[in-house]
Amino acid sequence: MRLRTRVVGLLAGPLLLTGCFLTGCTTPTPTPAPRPAPDEVIKAATQDLTDACLTRQGLTPPRSGQSPPPAAEQQRVTAALFGTGWAELSIALPTGYVVRAHTDGCLAAAQQRLYGDQRRWFRASVIVNNLKPESAHTHRSLAEVRARHRAEIADWQRLRTHALAGATDLLDNQPPTGDPRP
Q1: Closest among 77, 82, 45, 42 to 63, alpha carbons compared
Q2: Each residue of 21-62: pLDDT tens digit?
Q3: Do the Cβ atoms of 163 and 38 come closer than 8 Å?
Q4: Alpha-carbon span 41 to 179, nearest angstrom
Q5: Alpha carbon distance 11, 99 (integer Å)
Q6: Radius of gyration (Cα) for the chain, nearest Å?
Q7: Dihedral sign, CA of 42, 146, 89, 94?
Q8: Contacts of 5 by beta carbon, 8 Å cutoff, 6+ apart
Q9: How far apart (Å, rounded) are the C-alpha atoms in residues 41 and 22?
Q10: Are 124 and 152 in contact, with CB atoms under 8 Å apart?
Q11: Tens digit of pLDDT for each residue in 155-172?
C-alpha cells in the first residue's frame, strides 16, 4: 500500500507540472460580456447622435425618469429631434395608412449618418415593418407578402448591415470628450 501511495505521489508531481505547461499556468480568463443585439447597438448609436445634435443646439436631450421640461422647451426639443414643417418623406401603405417623416431634425441626421441614405431607409423600413398588417389587410399569407416585397427586404438588410457597422464604429471609437463625432 505504501509503495502504491508513493508511486502515485511521484507521478502526481510531473502530471501536475505537465498540466500546468499545457494550460499555461494562468488563471482562467473571464468570459467576455455577451455582445449586445444589433438592434441595441444601432439604438445606442442613434441615441448618442441625437443627444449630441440636441446638445449642440443648446437643448437638453429627454431622458426617461426625468420630470418633463416646460411645454415650450418640450416643443423645441420635439421640433429639433423630429423636424418641422411639411414632411418630405411619405409612403402610402396597402392598409390605407400613410407614413410620413422629415428629412430635417436630429433623428433624420442620425439615420442619414448610420444608414447612409435616409430616404431609402425610410421606405424600406416602413414597408418591412408593415408586412404583417399588409398580410392581414390583403388576406394573403405572410410568405406571399414577403415574396412580393423581396427587393425592399433585401434593401432593408443591406442598409441595416451598413448601420450596424457604422454604429459599432461610432460606439467603439468615442472621442475622449464622450461626444459622438458629427
Answers
A1: 77
A2: 445 555 666 777 777 899 999 999 999 999 999 999 999 898
A3: no
A4: 16
A5: 76
A6: 27
A7: negative
A8: none
A9: 38
A10: yes
A11: 999 999 999 999 999 999
Residue with cell 508511486: 7
Contacts 24+ apart (CB under 8 A), 75-83: 79/105, 80/53, 80/54, 80/105, 80/106, 81/50, 81/54, 81/105, 81/106, 81/107, 82/107, 83/107, 83/108
Q: Which of 50, 36, 61 is nearest to 168 (CA)?
A: 36
Model confidence pLDDT, tens digit, residues 91-124: 999 999 999 999 999 999 999 999 999 999 999 9
| Cβ-contact 110, 125 below 8 angstroms | no
Asked whether the beta carbons of 167 and 45 are under 8 A apart, the reply is yes
Evaluate the CA torsion angle 70, 74, 77, 80 in order and state its sign: negative
How many angstroms separate the CA atoms of 36 and 4, rounded? 54
